[in-house]
Amino acid sequence: MLLQILLVAHIAVLGYWLGSELVINSTYRYVSYGSHIPFAERNRLMEHVMHVDQHVRYALVLQAGLGFSLAALYGLIPGAETTAKIAGVLCVLWLGFVEAVHRLRHSRIGTTLGAIDRGSRYVFMALLVALATGLLGGSWEMPLWLRLKLALYAGVMASGVGIRLALISHFRTWKVMAQEGPTAVTNAIIRRTYVKATSVLGVLWLFIAAIVVVSIFKPT
Fold this sequence. Notes:
mainly alpha
């Protein structure tokens, strides 16, 4: 029964993830192209975008925890129930940390927590690639399709990092707009940043689509 529950949750979280991404992108586009809207209202909506972005972070963490738990319970990685329990505990701790990073982002410790958050993602991506290529767990009887999923999941995370890098110019320009008011130049930068970030988001969705295909057909 536990396996079936976790499997359903694993699938449901994927829908939750994609739905959150669509809401974020739609609202961000409205803000980016809303030069006719008073800046105070645009700023309020942008803050809403940052709150909704948390749901994407939750989904990413939940997929990692559920994925490793299922792999352990199905015997695809060592440890069975012990590994599944460890994955569950780490998932809960990671969710708590992600929430703390969000809530404290404007505080003195926010910058430090943000740096730790980004660093931990790079470490996790490296772990996924190591597992996918056999550098770690090369002797495990892990099927090819699972190693492909891990590599694709690392691609999803890398795309997420790419989106944040693309948004650097947005936040810099937004700060100027908040202090000096929007202009035709700053509005143009915001629109270009939206296009750039959305392009990377398209790559992220392709990685997710590839994960779904691999999960269904399980190539050997």
